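User: Can you help me understand a structure? I only have the sequence.
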Amino acid sequence: MKRTDSMRQGVGKKAMIPPALFVIGESLLLTFILEILSRRNFMDACRFVYKSPLLFLYGCSIVSVTLAIAMLFRKKVFSATLVTVLWLAFGIADCVLLGFRNNYPLTAVDLQMGLEAIMMMPVYFKIWQIVLIFVVGAGAIAGLVVLAIKSPRYRREGQRGVLRACLFVMVFLIYTLVLFTRPSGVISRNLKPDLYSSYKKYGFPYCFCYSFFNVGIEKPADYSPKQVADIAGTLDIDIKVNEQEEKHASGPIDEFIESVRTGDFASEPEGYTRDAVESIREILRGGAFEQEDGERPNILFVQLESFFDPMTVKTVTLSEDPIPNFRSLQENCIGGYLSVPTVSGGTANTEFEVLTGMGMQFFGLGEYPYKTILKETNCESIASDLHTLGYGTHAVHNNGGNFYSRRNAFSMMGFDTFTSKELMDIQDYTPLGTWPTDDILVGEVEKSLDYTPNQPDFVYTITVESHGDYPKYKVLDDPEIRVSGAKDEGMNYAWEYYVNQIHQVDDFIGQLIDMLKKRDEKTIVVMFGDHLPTMGLTESDMKTGSLFKTQYVTWNNFGLKKVDKSMTAYQLLADITDEIGIHNGTMFTFHQNRYKYATEDEYQNAMELLQYDILYGDHYVYGGGNPYPASDLIMGTEDVIVKQIIDRPYADCYYISGENFTKWSKVYINDTKVSTTYLSSRLLKISREDMPEGENQVVVNQVGSSESIFRSSNTLSFERKADDADAAGNAGGAR
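Assistant: Let's start by predicting it. Here is the structure, written out as tokens:
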């Protein structure tokens, strides 16, 4: 026993490297490696250290805190290795994502999308690459487990350990104070909207860590019922104002506690004062509109995945115009440039802006409201606003219903139905087999319009055919449109694939318009790109000078005058509904009155306050409470029907006949899912062994990711007799 104690003490006395020196040296090296990965260039990392040494050291201080925490554990080698591996994993993930998302870096929100990320891996990686990733990951985990077992346990050395811990606490408190107080100029909190530029300027450790804390919308200074009432002004909303002013934090400690409570560390909007907010009522006075009577048109919004005019790229030459239908609409109907909040990815954020009229500029770093605030609260949107006017509201998307948590988000925003790919009989895919083609959406949009025959409809359609990845090798043997002028042969192939895909999307646009022309219904269609594609574009490559501009066009059959104007995604629906005489909804009426503001700052400040009140505040704009509850969202617009279970003589299977089956139809027997083979929209097959003897209850469910059941058929009772008594041609029927 003495020998053992002596040995343990000896381990504790081993001097390897003093912990303080290790933390300093490791943090310097690790931070530099992270900057190389973040910039994807060794020399750029060197230039960052040389030109911005204080910013580099600030990043080092963040890394050093995490390493210092590791030093407080007795298994210091393991703890330090674990911290180092985690930082390197984040850095490598950032480096990879930058390539796939056109310089859109890793943020905390990306870590919340683990399942979606795994689902997307086959799109961007080859099978061997995916296998390698998992092998390396498994190897790293296994190595850490072995190290956790084998690494020595160092003794805590009395007062020296206490002093070391106290020193760490002091450093941590100082660091916290620096991080969360208002910056003095070295570090900025204004890291949006161009995240890549912010990451390059301030370094990966600071920006990445900042994304964990900067979430939601900060409670504006002097937020009160009176301010909301003043901003609402004449929005035709009855607001009950409590004249008693709210008590606000008056000191730095109170301010810090409130920021922790709200989960947001963003800075207060510049120029935001009580006087500025209270003046909004006068600005908006007389700005409300009367509702117009008469037949209301169908409103169709089509969000085109990664769609823009490639002829706005300076360096690429095309053999012909890939988007003639879109071009014709540009020339003859309302249209213009659309400023979107993201580039090369983040479709859901453009979608959120359009549907709610809220701007992403007020949210946290790299945040997706679909994945955060809409997980827990319902939200007024165009769907709920139009529903009050008698509209049926539908969403259509030829991708998974759970991706970006859309099933939940559309319910929270008040949609009636959502038709995702799981409810579609998809047969055709892109040349790589990655995505369904968009022509399937023409019929699905028409089904949505037919779902509510005696009322106008709002249909929000999301395409997917032109989604990346765009391979840098030849895929198309005889492309209809040829490309030249890219920086190398690989990029020529990537552009060739992309422009031929959007050419197919343009065909879908033509088919959609032709279908609508045949319907005797007053209709307006709005089509727009959600973001630029992942092509490594820079601002200098674009004739617009911006990576955050796409185009929108419209079509209508009731003679709207052509007016071209550019706007933001969160203003789009407000302007379209204004054109057709609809002036309804808090945010949309607000945007329709935006020209009443004297300055852009006043408009933005008021917009931020309304967003905060609706999503995070006390709903003063509604008089307290939320009058827009989540809907009982129905997945799909057609019933799945099981008609018959067919037993063929001497067959080792049963056939399930019915209607509206898809590749995502799964047979459940007595509430247990069994292996199902899709044969057609009217026929499924299951193994004979999966049908137990005796009475069985058979249901066909439309199943999404994570075993989510989107829609269920009727229940069919079927009795399987003992094998020796089976009758040839036995068939089960509904009971």
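Now, to help you interpret it: Residues 2-213 form one domain. The chain has a mean pLDDT of 82. Let me know which part you'd like to focus on.
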